[in-house]
Design goal:
The protein has helices spanning 7-13, 21-29, 37-45, 48-58, 72-79, 81-96, 108-128, 137-146, 149-158, 160-172, 176-183, 188-198, 203-211, 216-221, 223-237, 243-257, 262-275. It is an all-alpha fold.
Length: 281
């Protein structure tokens, strides 16, 4: 078993992927008022593997296009620039780690589906919450999408040693981040925040990834952190037998921290049940 890690030292040796050029361009373009949707579509189209995956995901039932988009430019006109950026980021990250599919003891597709579902939930909750600006909803999708990226980076960096963490988590029934702290000295939230910093993502994204498991005062003090923390728990528990019990606790938390009425929270849960089977990876 690997000895406990020092995060500062680990950050110098960890294998952090670089964002593809197309995603880096999009990160700049979406904040430029002079850039049009056709420009966004054209940039994505220049990267054939990402373009084909973006088009497939944009045409999936999750986005509910009235007619299938035949090009990324068409899709951008319907779903918007930031959504296309998020889909392109999703496609590029998933492609980067596809060699780990089928790893015993590590359900990569499950992690990706959970990430996308958490992002969808975070965006939906943010849109409905009166304490969160509507303009930040799509950034919170990005937070949800990336909130567990540290797990995959740790697997690539530590290999079998990280699989031992997962095995102990399953055997003990304890949360993965608690076992990571115990066995490694760093958690996937630490590593995920490091990834977001290396990618020069907005400080909000770094903060949300770092604190989506707590400490509690960070969740209570920051509605954006609370959105992803709550979305993460919904995504984990929605298909479990104890979800009804947990959903009442999450409804109370949403009412307190997001000022979301219980009836509206229930609407989000109904929407989530419908959207989950439609998510494509």
């Amino acid at each position: 078993m690997v000895s406990k890690l020092d995060l500062a030292q680990f950050s110098e040796t960890v294998s952090i992927p670089t964002l593809p050029e197309v995603v880096m361009k999009l990160n700049t373009m979406v904040d430029d008022d002079k850039v049009g949707l056709e420009d966004i579509g054209l940039v994505v189209s220049q990267d054939a593997p990402i373009s084909s995956k973006v088009l497939r995901i944009a045409n999936s039932a999750v986005y509910g296009l009235s007619e299938p988009a035949r090009s990324v430019e068409d899709a951008a006109k319907v779903v918007g620039a930031r959504t296309i950026r998020n889909i392109a980021m999703q496609a590029s990250i998933f492609n980067r780690y596809e060699q780990y599919e089928g790893t015993d003891g590590f359900n990569l597709r499950g992690i990706w589906k959970h990430a996308v579902f958490t992002g969808q939930l975070a965006q939906e909750l943010a849109k409905r919450s009166p304490v969160i600006e509507t303009s930040s909803a799509e950034e919170l999708y990005t937070c949800g999408l990336l909130h567990d990226i540290g797990k995959v980076v740790l697997l690539e960096t530590l290999g079998e040693d990280y699989l031992e963490v997962y095995e102990k988590s399953r055997e003990s029934g304890r949360a993965v981040h608690l076992v990571e702290e115990e066995m490694l000295g760093v958690t996937h939230t630490d590593v995920g925040a490091l990834v977001a910093k290396r990618w020069d993502l907005h400080e909000l994204i770094v903060k949300v990834i770092q604190h989506h498991h707590g400490p509690r005062y960070e969740i209570e003090a920051n509605p954006q952190v609370a959105v992803v923390a709550i979305s993460d728990q919904i995504a984990y528990r929605i298909e479990t037998s104890e979800f009804e019990m947990f959903s009442r606790k999450l409804a109370a938390l949403s009412s307190n921290l997001l000022k979301l009425p219980p009836s509206e929270f229930d609407e989000v849960l109904e929407w989530a049940v419908d959207i989950l089977p439609l998510i494509e990876i």
